[in-house]
Specification:
2 strands
Length: 196
């Protein structure tokens, strides 16, 4: 059971690496060169602030939580105690992720479009957090049904993030904003072979 759960956790965590994006250090949004020197709209300003500043600033807490996951997988998993790992997840990683979500939710903008975009991003983050919690429950209760719930949360989070990305791209295109970089984060270092 432990090996199976560890394998599923690693696969789940690697999947989470794909959905924890939104502001990567090389992702930048800025008014396009066609509008340089032209007065920017409030929507342009807030969209650039949300993606280019606010998500970047808040991502620090998410990164701290992710580092806890990576720390576990960098160790020798044969010697790692799943109880100790669950304690780190419960006492350190999940609270940091909760702070991250709380601060995301607290962001408020004048433009409905930017608030709607933020809400899509928050939904993805909440589902990701739920998936992490399901993995903790699976280990603590020794119940594989939580792994299935985690997989569903991961898939739903990916779908919510896709909606966010599509909406962000559409808003940027409609408002002459250039997106530099990509949406994916490569901050999870675990791989399925780590659980063998």
């Amino acid at each position: 059971m432990r090996k199976k759960v560890l394998t599923l956790i690693v696969v789940g965590v690697c999947s989470l690496g794909l959905i924890g994006c939104g502001k990567r250090k090389d992702l930048n949004v800025e008014p396009s060169t066609a509008t340089t020197g032209v007065s920017q709209s409030g929507l342009q300003v807030e969209l650039v602030k949300f993606v280019g500043e606010d998500l970047s600033r808040l991502n620090v807490k998410r990164q701290q939580a992710v580092e806890i996951y990576n720390e576990y997988f960098k160790s020798n998993t044969k010697d790692a105690d799943s109880t100790d790992w669950v304690t780190k997840l419960t006492d350190e990683a999940l609270p940091k992720y909760d702070e991250y979500i709380k601060e995301l939710k607290a962001l408020n903008y004048d433009n409905k479009e930017v608030n709607d975009l933020k809400d899509k991003y928050v939904r993805s983050a909440e589902l990701q957090r739920d998936a992490i919690n399901q993995i903790v429950m699976s280990i603590t209760k020794n119940d594989d049904s939580y792994v299935e719930k985690a997989k569903k949360d991961i898939e739903d989070s990916k779908a919510a993030l896709k909606e966010y990305e599509d909406e962000l791209k559409a808003l940027c295109q409609q408002n002459q904003i250039t997106i530099n970089g990509n949406f994916q984060m490569d901050d999870f270092t675990a791989s399925p072979s780590d659980a063998k």
